[in-house]
Amino acid sequence: MKTILKIIFILPLIILSQENQVIIDGQFNDWENIYSINDMPNENYEGVNFTSISVTNDNNYLYIRFQTENEIDLLDMEFNGEELYDMEIFIDTDNDAQTGFIPAYNENIGCELGIMFNGRYVWYNEPNPDVQISLYDVGIFPAPTVTSNQFEIAIDLKSEYDGSLLFPNPEIKIQLRDWISGDNIPNINSEIIYTINSDPTEFNSINLDKENENLIRLTAYNVLSNGFNDTERVDKLKNTLFALKSDIFAFSECSNTSTQTVKNILDEILPINTDEGWFVIKKDNDDLILASKFPIINDWPNESMGIKKMHPCLIDLPDEIYLRDLLVINAHMSCCDNDTARQEQADDFVNFILDAKSEGGVIDLDEDTPFVLCGDLNLVGLSQQLNTLISGEIINTFIYGTGGGMNWSNNDLAYASCLHTQLPTLYTWRDLNYSVGSYPYGILDYIIYSSDVINVHKSFSLDTEFMPQKELNNNNLNFSDSRGSDHLAITADFNIPILLNENKNGNIFKKVLSKINILGQFKKSEHHLSINIYDDGSIEKNIILKNWLY
Residues 430, 534: one domain? Predict the structure, then answer.
């Protein structure tokens, strides 16, 4: 006899599962209180072996999380020409086994939607069978974009196709299958019957305002194929930059764009009341341009002395406010299936930072100088590349050394969670001209930072096509402004340690020559008291405010 596994969400469990708003960001702590079904190991060593699945919803999205025995690629079928995965989520959207596609191995489910992740399309079987539609047509947001042994997916409950709601019924059935291994979750003769509950939980939108003048706002933005030179797109890009009002912009895909072009744009839309205006610099023979309100006092523009596909720039933050300067590393790592090149670039980054933290070599930073890696990292393949950037684990040790801890305290770096301002999702790229087979919303762009010396007050990505009209009006934005690029502008407001001077106004125009701690050591102290020696011969005691600005 076939059995149906029916999950009944009693009231306390519903409350627990919805107290934590699920965020599709590739992090899974928000699933802890949500019921999961576990699966027995599969003896077939080919394909995917599912180990658990969880389902929940709010008023806008159906959320599915599943785990696998081994790390897999959610959005590609092949590796080196070998077909490895072919996963499908069956969704019976009307809980009627007599409608939709009925798989031969399970007559209890008639699926109107069959989401083929590795093929990147959806079977739509209502009213006609075997219609292929795009993942975008169903409003599917998956994470993470790199390989993993667990994934989370949001599916838009209000999505329509050809004038029909794709989820017309509150009671649905779900089953997950890999066609290579033959593994199913729940098992072959069962499925989840899930009731979509009405839930008033709403995602708290993120406003664009910088909430303290001493926060340093940084934006990374791939402007798509020299967007600043494109007369049809440049106004969209300008509107985005004006709305963000960042202190530092890290641009990529500017290979044929001049620094003067970028400077002219920023001096026009975000003027600075100084003779110099914006400081703009470009990496040698590359597509990376960095713009800063503050002087750029050093950079490492060539790859023999810098980093492959990256451009480190040292920003001179005002000495009368900030304890240290800021190293910003603008990046545009290799695209698509080029895992080998991306790993080399990640290893090179680790080698550069470890050099910066030690005496000698190409770069020496003052102790505890904060640093940020930002930009289009193209992390769409093996998760090892992200792990290397965060943890300092070098793979090509013969060339780049043995690796080591990345923070000044030698633990892992952190990355900003640049959530969408209006949706419970994190994505930084989407296909502007999608079709069947298009890659879905993905996390390609990152802001990674030295989290033991600075932290993030606020971070977000900006997609105007999902913003309500009131928010667009408040920020002088248009609905289509984010279509200036296929990437979104991602932004983080950093808390950087500041100085609380006894005579704050007395050293505004004086350059600090040395900082001496209470032991007389010439170094930037992390303790409570330092003495500044200025170029006019004066000496001033400073209290170091180590607490962050909130």
Answer: no
306 and 408 housed in the same domain: yes
How many other C-beta atoms lie within 10 A of the C-beta of residue 31? 18
Q: What is the CATH number of the domain that holds 171?
A: 2.60.40
Beta-sheet strands, E only, within 278-422: 279-282, 289-292, 296-299, 310-315, 326-332, 371-376, 414-415
Residue 510 inside a domain? The answer is yes
**Which is nearest to 50 in space by CA: 36, 40, 63, 60?**
40
Please indicate, yes or no, whether residues 513 and 471 belong to a single structural domain of this protein.
no
pLDDT tens digit at each of 550 positions of the chain? 333 333 333 222 232 334 468 999 999 999 998 989 998 777 777 899 999 999 999 999 999 999 999 999 999 987 767 788 999 999 999 999 999 999 888 888 999 999 999 999 999 998 888 899 999 999 999 999 999 999 999 999 999 999 999 999 999 999 999 999 999 999 877 889 999 988 767 788 999 999 999 999 999 999 999 999 999 999 999 999 999 999 999 999 999 999 999 999 999 999 998 999 999 999 999 999 999 999 999 999 987 789 999 999 999 999 999 999 999 999 999 999 999 999 999 999 999 999 999 999 999 999 999 999 999 999 999 999 999 999 999 999 999 999 999 999 999 999 999 999 999 999 999 999 999 999 999 999 999 999 999 999 999 999 999 999 999 999 999 999 999 999 999 999 999 999 875 444 433 333 344 445 544 444 443 444 555 554 445 555 454 444 444 4
Q: Are 459 and 419 in contact (CB under 8 A)?
A: yes
- β-strand partners of 265: none
Q: Can you tell me the distance from the alpha carbon of 301 to that of 328, in angstroms, rounded to the nearest whole number? A: 12
The first and second tokens of residue 172, run together, are 């649905």
Bin 48: left if φ > 0, else alpha if -120 < ψ < 50, else beta: beta
Rg (CA), the chain: 26
State which H helix or E strand residue 79 sits in: strand 78-79
- Read off φ and ψ for residue 65, nearest 5 degrees: -120, 135
Q: How far is CA 225 from CA 33, 238, 497, in A?
A: 44, 16, 37
